[in-house]
Amino acid sequence: MVKEELLGILRTRFGDNLIVDEEVVRVYSRDMSGVQGAAGGVIRVTSTSQVKEAVDFARDHGVPLVARGAGTSLDGESVPFDGALVLDFSPMKRVLDFDVDNHLVTVEPGVVNRELNNYLGQKGFFLPPNPGSWEMSTIGGNTSTNAAGPRSYKYGSFRRWVKGLEVVLGTGEVTRLGHYTTKSSSGLDLVSLLVGSEGTLGLFTKVVLRVESLPESRVGVIVPVSGVRQATKAVVELSRRPWLGISALEFVDDKCISALNAVYGETLPEAPAALFLEVEGSRRGFESRLEELLNTLSGFELVGDPLYEENVDGMWDIRGRIAFALGKLYGENRYRDDVAVPVSSFPELVSGVSRILEEKGLEYAVFGHAGDGNLHLEFDRTKLSAAELDSLLRQIFGLTLSLRGTLSGEHGIGWLKLPYVDLEHTGEAINLMRSIKRVFDPKNILNPRKAY
User: Fold this and answer.
1) What's the CA gap between 383 and 365, in Å, rounded?
2) Domain 95-213 belongs to what architecture?
3) pTM of the predicted model, to two decimals?
4) How far apart are CA 252 and CA 376, in angstroms?
5) How far apart are CA 275 and CA 221, in angstroms?
6) pLDDT digit string, tens, across residues 52-75
7) How far is CA 254 from its chain centroid?
8) What are the backbone angles phi and psi of residue 202, rounded to the nearest 5°?
9) Are strands 39-44 and 84-88 parallel, antiparallel or unpaired?
10) Which of 3.50.50.60, 3.30.70.990, 3.40.47.10, 3.30.70.2190 would CATH assign to domain 217-322?
11) 357, 172, 170, 369: which is closest to 277 by C-alpha?
């Protein structure tokens, strides 16, 4: 815990925005990963100057800081340890500027992704990366993990859409980074370095995002398939046809379908697997592209007719509830995370991970952003010791890396995957990351013991 004399200083500086109530602090000491940490207090920051003041205090007194938006991280990125102070950015939720002509929106980090898209939609625009947690997750959190979602199949992850940042470094310096032009060859791309750094290099206080005009036409399609292998092979085939205008290409297995129907009362067709697709583009030729899409899918043993969803956001809300539905069935004692491979290796990844989990006799579900090779897996770890879980994860990560994949497609490394970073990155690469950390945060006060 933070020493009482230091809490006195914090009360003077932050007043009622400082929270030390034990019950509240305990809530802030964990996130959706289920990892339980130990915060020394919470500061609800409301401005860049308050964030700077908190960093200056932490630097001067050797107190670690952990940034938090909505706490939706799944690898413990926002979990505090060793009495760290949690900076709650949720009060900083203003849209500061919208440059319609240049398709740029400037927001504070506490803005919720879904709410920003609602705002943009009224003006004919949208922010393409839509994480499964978009109803809750914040732009600051999305930026710090380089988050992605179903539409990342076409539009890429957050890094592609962040044009500028205002950031408070571990030194206490407030700096602005980025370019507002379509292209730039001036200097190192520090924005791309900070996106995905999980709050270890600096704390975002403003984010400038590039946004896209809404397409003329957009429809969702849910396709029941006779088997997991057929569904994953269909993903590879569809990925070879960019002219179809597919903007999202998702895979779910039968456990996901059953969980959604049981927990949320959905009426999805019970099938061994299903694909959730989104098709968009200009009105011209839209129907013919849909027809070609269905003709392509007909070669992969469908179960019944595809379902069309005009309410595409509603379809993504259903897809986004999978993790919560599985949580109701498996309980809190479950492991859930993501890995990613080149899309051509996605069928092999799914079959390999399924085989590993079945050999252990575990209840599990697999789903994910199949179009970009990103697999999500959840399983009940009740029967596994810590050593058995470690061995199992090393098998899964070993398979992933053998397929030229990565330990995380979008969730990040955080705390849970930290022991496995050296499976993917060389010692030299990890040392370079730590050297960069020392430049941005010489006192190691920003989210220590995370990412690398």
Assistant:
1) 16
2) 2-Layer Sandwich (3.30)
3) 0.94
4) 9
5) 8
6) 999 999 999 999 999 999 999 999
7) 23
8) -175, 165
9) parallel
10) 3.30.70.2190
11) 369
